[in-house]
Every structure is written in C-alpha cells, then in structure tokens.
Amino acid sequence: MAHSAHAQPKENGLYLGGFLQSALGTHIQDSDEQKMLESLKQAEIAAYWRFMDKGLLGFELEYDPAKFSNHQVSDLSTAQMANKILEVAYLEWKESFIGLRLGKVVSDVGVEGLDIIERLAWEKSPVPNPNTYSGAFVSAYLPWNLELYGGATLGWDTLWNKNDAISPIVGLKHKSPQERAGLAYHSNLSFMIGPEQRDNKEDHRWLVDYSVGINMGETSEVLFELLYGQEAGLGYDGQSGAPDPNKAAAFWAGLTSFEYAFSQSQSSIVQPLAIGQRLEYIRDKDMLWGWFPEDISGLTTQIASTTTIRYRLHDWIDLMLDYRADFGRGDVQNVSILRNIDAFPEVWNMGQWYQSHQFVFGVVGLFSTRIN
Questions:
Q1: Is the pLDDT of residue 346 over 60?
Q2: Is 46 contained in some domain?
Q3: Which residues, at least 6 apart from 143, have a Cβ–Cβ distance to it below 8 Å?
Q4: Within 13 Å, how many C-alpha atoms sit on residue 361's CB side?
C-alpha cells in the first residue's frame, strides 16, 4: 500500500518535498459539547540527498499546532523549540550486509506510518510507542531476509535527553522473500528500555512490541500490532489507590487495520479511491498515558475505531473523510478516580463508558520534486 512505509528516495540526487494537512471537522465530547477542530493539522517540508548509491542525508521540519497547545512560543527553550519543529535529521549509510544511522530518526517500533503521506488514516493511533528517537543505530542484513538492528537512543520522542541516560533498543525484522500466491508480509519484534522520567535515571521504562503487515496483491493490506510495557516507580497501591514508588506501572495495547485500494478497478474514476478500518485497544491500569481525547482523568481502558475514505484527486492533492470513535472507562478499583466528588456521588460510576466522536473532512496537499 502506498501509505504504509516511510517515504525515501531510491536514486541518487537531491529531493525536496512536503505536505499540508488541513481539515474541517468537529469533535463531539461526552458532555455533548461540540468543538471545532483546528483547521491546520500539520505542515511539513523535507529535504533528502541520496549519494553514492549507499548514503542518505535527510531533514524534515514540521509545524504541528498540537505540540504548542499548552505553551507560548516565548516560553520554550531553544532545545524544546528544536525538538518540536525538527521531526527527523539523520545520516544513513548502507552496505550489502550492514547499515548505520545517526541522528533523530523515525522509530522502528510499531507498524503505522508517522505522517499522513505514510499512512491512510487522518491520525496515527495513540498506542504507546515512540514516534521518533535520537541516537546511533546499526543494522545487520542476515540471510533469509532477516534484519537484526540495535542502537543507543536518548529516549522517546526527543532530540535531547531528559536525564543524561541512554535507552538501548534492539529488534529483529523479517519479510517474505517474494510474493507468493499474491501474498507478502513483513514483521518486526522490538525491545526498548531506559529511563524516561525527567531528571530520574533510576526508574526505567521498558517496552516489547511485535507488529506484522500482510499485503494481498497491490490492493489490500492488513496490519497488526501488540505491545506490553512497564515503567518503574509509577504504579499504584491496589488497596489504597495511592501512588506507590515501589511498584511499576504496566500497560498493554494492540491494533489491527485493514486497507483496500481500488487501484486495479477498470473505472478511472474509482481507481484513486482507498478505504480503511482500524481498531485499537489500550489498557493503562496505572494511568500513565492519558490518551483519551477529552480532559477526563482516571480512564484505564480505551477502545477506538477509525474509518477512513481517501481519494487522490490529483498527483498533489488528496481528499479524506475520517470518523473516529473513542470509548474509555475507569475500571480499576481505588485507582480510577474520575468525577469522584463527595457532594455529587451520582456522577461517579465505576466502569461507566465515556464517548468521544470526531468527524473530519480533510485535504492533504503534497509535493515532491527532484532538484538534480
């Protein structure tokens, strides 16, 4: 599928590209309050230089209003500003049996593309895995289409470190040697560990993630992902509901999605159409992530569904319809404290589901050109 991998040039030369993601949409909250979405979702410009058939230098600068929603630009340090704007910046070199990457790169963990040009849905799933990390990474290309990779990172989604500590990562990728009976697949098993709390080098977060994609011809793709992780010092006491620094917070999640492109249709009008359906589940029993779209504390379980229709109107513009439904609840006794007001006990219901619905009509403008 066209949207499932991070886009990189294959031939030597200097390339410039980018995209603009804008929307007309509404978010219907649990209270029935409607909130209009920001018209600008994300804008990005990228430059890539492929050289000597083996080297690649890449930069991607982005503007995402959500990253500045709780800050005034004047309140951010230079390092914080750079981390929010510089999505990736890295140097890559590949030989036939080994590869090296240095810099801030798109995470190897997970199965979904980071940007709208690398996935079908309007938004990336909030399953808890890193989008990017900075560091040095080595890949060994083994027989049987195996790739063993590992490296040292400065933590999740950061350009500079929070605590002067290293978070190692190691993983194993595999892909089918060739398409058989119209099927091809790719898989990735990864493990990452390290301290992620600011100014705290003692308490570690670790994550194991397995993902797989199955391509059925050139028209269909099925994606799966499962993960489990813990973070030391952020757990809760099950009896009192109080934070317990001697317990680790645990979380697990999964997603599956199906995408179908009508590119093989006999109708030229239908050929640019693609549709997709994604389901996801997140269990966050120690309230580590706070991923629900509304400002409701204490939710420990989330189930979500995303339905997407996407149409390539022209080489440089896509039209989209995207509907996302989130269902979250607090279901850990003595820990899920939400809307628990002594004066109004009727508003507190353990296990009650809270809903959030988002409807988007989106436009994605994109361009890519080779300069030399």
A1: no
A2: yes
A3: none
A4: 1
Residue 372 belongs to a domain:
no
Count of other CB atoms within 10 angstroms of residue 73: 9
Nearest alpha carbon to residue 326 among 369, 348, 359, 364: 359
Q: Is 60 exceeded by the pLDDT of residue 302?
A: yes
pLDDT tens for each residue of 84-104: 899 999 999 999 999 999 999
pTM: 0.90
Q: Which residue's entry shows tokens 């504390």?
A: 297
Judge contact between 76 and 51, C-beta under 8 A. Answer: no
Q: Is residue 1, in this structure, part of any structural domain at all?
A: no
| Cα of 292 vs its chain's centroid, Å | 15
For the stretch 203-249, pLDDT in tens is 999 999 999 999 988 899 999 999 999 999 999 887 777 888 999 99
The pair of structure tokens assigned to 309 is 């229709």
CATH number at 247 reads 2.40.160.10
Does any domain span residue 5? no
Q: How far from chain centre, in Å, is Cα 28? A: 23
Number of structural domains the chain divides into: 1
Report how far residue 187's alpha carbon sits from residue 42's, in angstroms, rounded to the nearest whole number: 29
Give the alpha-carbon dihedral of 190, 186, 17, 262, to 10 degrees: -140
Q: Is 342 helix (H, G, I), strand (E, B) or coil?
A: coil
Q: Which stretches does DSSP call E strand in the chain?
A: 13-28, 34-36, 40-51, 55-63, 86-94, 98-106, 132-142, 146-153, 167-175, 183-195, 204-216, 220-231, 235-236, 243-244, 249-261, 273-283, 301-314, 317-329, 353-370
Q: Which residue has the tokens 């390092």?
A: 79
What phi and psi values does residue 30 have, to the nearest 5 degrees? -60, -30
Q: Quick one: CA dihedral 118, 122, 123, 125, positive or negative?
A: negative
Q: How far is CA 353 from CA 267, 295, 346, in A?
A: 44, 14, 15
Cα atoms in the 13 Å half-sphere on the side-chain side of 92:
21
Chain Cα centroid distance, residue 89: 18
Whole-angstrom Cα distance, residue 151 to residue 104?
12
Residue ranges making up the domain that contains 356: 13-367
